[in-house]
Structures are given as structure tokens and as C-alpha cells.
Design a protein that fits this description.
With about 230 residues, the chain is α/β, with parallel strands linked by helices. The chain has one domain: TIM Barrel (Alpha-Beta Barrel), CATH 3.20.20. It has 7 helices and 9 strands, in the order E-H-E-E-H-E-H-E-H-E-E-H-E-H-E-H. An 8-stranded parallel barrel has the order 1-2-4-5-6-7-8-9. The two termini are about 15 Å apart. The structure holds D-xylitol-5-phosphate (DX5) and zinc ion. The site of zinc ion has 5 residues, from strand 2. D-xylitol-5-phosphate (DX5) binds next to strand 2.
Length: about 230
């Protein structure tokens, strides 16, 4: 413990009417990442954030992107986006027979590489790739939609993963928690060993709880920041 957790604001939860307000506040607070969910209507039953939206977003902010590809054929679809050094990028393990190529592709671009796993996927399947990843994105809800309830066993899963990687001398592999990371859940996930926290409709974008500055501050308090 002791590391400061990082926040990644889930842009699929940001209403376009308030986007400039949010981006200015995130910049002011030095928020670490913008979480960019890419959904193709195939891997999950939903569409999210397209190529033009992501291009426009680059023009109005310099906060690094935390891409999350929830798509079939991530190797092809990652190439449709402008991924840069300083970004981090997660693609899913499930339904993906091109994992080594995806990792090579991201390495060439200089982005941090993560493999994402669904709640029911055993983390040991990632063992062959540990030398080539920076982190693992652990879904704490079933993927596809914002506003779902955290699946309690994913907290133990994160704890077990943290212990397992530490025992292999791999404390450099970080864990990102995605799905219903409310302030209350962030505290539990931080104590379990998560380091990056996707903040969506259950925290930063929770209706009626603005200003967002206060939510960032509250959330940071439970993920290792002395405020
Ligand atoms: C899916 C998304 C969602 C969501 C997170 O990959 O990243 O899980 O936006 O925010 P919540 O669950 O708080 O709405
Ligand atoms: Zn996501």
C-alpha cells in the first residue's frame, strides 16, 4: 500500500453539454487519464466512442487517454485510432487470438499495454503475457454499460492478483478497476491492491453531486492521497 491511486474519467459518461466544464476541472486537478471505451456492438451489446469523437477530443485536451477496446478484432480496430506515447491501452483477452500481435503493436507505439479481463475470466490465463504487459484491467461489472452494480467477488480477485504478482516479483504490474468504482468501492478496491480507478456514473459523473472538484478530492482521499 501507500502508492497514490490514479483516476481515469470515463468519457462515455460525460454529457456533451458539459464536456468543456469537465475537461477544465480535470486539467486543473491534474487528473491522470481520460478513459475511452470503444465498443463495437459485437463484443458487447452496445456502441461507444467512435473514431471522430476521439479525434475531436484530442483537439480539446492534452490529458492522456486510457483506451479500453471492448471489440472483436482489437488488432485491426486499434489501428483506427491515434494512440500515442503516454497513453495506456487495454484490449480484452476474451475472443482474441492475436494477443502477441496486439502487444507488439502497442509496444511499437510506445503506449502502456494492458490486457482486460471480464469478471469471470481466470487471471492465470494472462501468465504467458506477463513480460509484455504493464498492467491488467479488471472488469468489476459485466462489460458494456455504465451504471451497473459491482460484482463483489471481483474485489477478492484483485486482492489475489495483487498477491500473486507480488509473489512472482512483479509488483510493477498494476491493476486497473473498471465498473461501478464509486467512492465506497474505490476504497475497497484500493485496499485490495488496485492502482487505477475508472470513474464513471457512480462517482465523477454522479447526478446532483457537482462540483466535480469535490468528488475528485473525496475520491483521492480513499486511494492513498493525503489531502
Ligand atoms: C465500461 C465502462 C463502464 C463505466 C464505468 O468499460 O468503463 O464501466 O463507464 O462507470 P460506472 O460503472 O461508474 O458507470
Ligand atoms: Zn472501460
Amino acid at each position: 500500500m501507500g502508492k497514490k491511486g490514479k483516476l481515469s474519467a470515463s468519457m462515455m459518461c460525460t454529457g456533451l453539454d458539459k464536456i468543456f466544464y469537465y475537461l477544465a476541472e480535470f486539467k486543473e486537478a491534474n487528473l491522470e487519464y481520460l478513459h475511452i471505451d470503444i465498443m463495437d456492438g459485437e463484443f458487447v451489446p452496445n456502441f461507444a466512442l467512435g473514431t471522430d469523437y476521439v479525434k475531436s477530443l484530442r483537439r480539446i485536451t492534452d490529458i492522456p487517454f486510457d483506451f479500453h477496446f471492448l471489440v472483436n478484432n482489437p488488432l485491426e480496430k486499434m489501428s483506427w485510432f491515434d494512440i500515442r506515447e503516454g497513453d495506456q491501452v487495454a484490449f480484452h483477452y476474451e475472443n482474441n487470438d492475436q494477443i502477441p500481435k496486439c502487444l507488439q503493436y502497442l509496444k511499437r507505439l510506445g503506449a502502456d499495454s494492458l490486457i482486460a479481463i471480464n469478471p469471470e475470466t481466470d487471471y492465470k490465463v494472462l501468465d504467458p503475457y506477463l513480460d509484455d504487459i504493464n498492467g491488467v484491467l479488471v472488469m468489476t461489472v459485466h462489460p458494456g454499460f455504465a451504471g451497473k452494480k459491482l460484482i463483489p467477488y471481483t474485489i477478492d480477485k484483485i486482492k489475489n492478483m495483487r498477491d500473486y504478482y507480488d509473489s512472482q516479483g512483479r509488483d510493477d504490474i498494476f491493476l486497473e478497476a473498471d465498473g461501478n468504482v464509486s467512492i465506497k468501492n474505490a476504497e475497497k478496491l484500493y485496499n485490495a491492491g488496485a492502482e487505477v480507478f475508472v470513474a464513471g456514473s457512480s462517482s465523477l459523473f454522479k447526478k446532483g453531486e457537482e462540483p466535480v472538484k469535490n468528488i475528485i478530492e473525496e475520491k483521492r482521499k480513499v486511494i492513498g492521497w493525503q489531502m
